[in-house]
Every structure is written in structure tokens, then in C-alpha cells.
Write a structure and sequence with these properties.
- By secondary structure, the chain is an alpha+beta fold.
- Helix content is 22%, strand content 28%.
- It is built from 6 helices and 11 strands.
- A 7-stranded antiparallel beta sheet has the order 3-7-10-5-4-6-11. A two-stranded antiparallel ribbon has the order 1-2.
- Helix 4 crosses helix 5.
- It starts with 6 loop residues before the first helix and ends in a 13-residue tail after the last strand.
Length: 200
Amino acid sequence: MPYFVNQTAFDDPNNWRRAQGVDLNPKNAIVDPRGNVLAYAQTGGMIAPSRFALTSGQKIYRFGGAGRTTRDVATGAWWVEQRQFEILLSFAQTHDLALGMAVRLLCLAPPEWSDISLLVRARIVRDLLAWRGLANTVVIPATAGNPTVRLPHQNEIAARRLAQLFIPGLDGPGTARAAIQIENDYPLDAEASRRGFLYL
């Protein structure tokens, strides 16, 4: 039996690619005339993800929403540690922003990906493996009626440098329930989480 609950998912090279922001959906891939995939789209994710062990007792935080239940949000892969969450809070307070907007700016989460209307706090109860790294630039090409979204990373500014976690496998049958205990959830104002967001 693996020492880490999500060892198999962590060892899957596709999850390392997802941590880097690679979209493995064939419908979004660049293909040749025969339909063979030449390249996958990539945006966001993290720069140079490194292996990171989460041990029992650690607190982690995840943002989600759009009508999803707390349990559904908790099965997602993208989280932040407690210290990084405190950086988000401090940034929001310093700049008089809603917490959701601070997440957009430091975690590079555009409205197209989440309305950031729910915060989940959980505690690790069985050791997990994660990829950990700094956010990479997000570019979402313009679509019909929608402008291009561009969120450049700001890792060269110490106050805006924030490491994120990509924890693969939490969406597997029973994995989230076995590995994390949800301690609380907090509704966030979805409108405040995008107030002031600028499209470029």
C-alpha cells in the first residue's frame, strides 16, 4: 500500500503536466489534418512545479463556487497552504480588496475559471503529495463577444509572490474523504470577487 494516499495520481505524468497548466482535453488541442495531436494548449498553471509532501495536521485552503457543494470544491486539485492564505488576506486588507479579488490577482484566477464564491478550509488527516510552485501567466484568447484575458505573473514582486499547491487525485473515489477533513466553508461575494477586474 502506498505511503501517500494519492501516490498513484501523483506518479501519473499527466498530472505533472496539468500542474503546469497544460489542457489535455483533445478538443482544445492543436491537431494535424488527420486529427493527430501536435500540441496541447497551455496557460496558467505553475512555474517549475516541485514535489511537496503534506502531512497530517496541516491546514489547506481552496476557493471555488458557481453552485458547487463544499464537498465538490474540496475534491479539486488547486489549494494554498495556511501561510499563503495569510498572504492573500494581508494583500486584500492592505489594498482594500475583497478576498476573491486578491485570489484573482495573486493566484491568477480569471472569472472564466471560477466565480470565487466559496472558501473551503480543510485539515490533512492522511499524508498527501502535491506539486508546489509559483503561478504562471494566464492568457485566455478572445472568444465571440468576450475580450482577451491576460493575467501576467508578478513573481518578481516579493509581496505578490505566492506558491500554490496542485494535489492530484482528490477527485478519485473516496480519496478526499480519506485524506482531508473539511473544517469549515465560507461564502464569498461573487460580485466583489470580480469588482474592478479589468480585461485587456
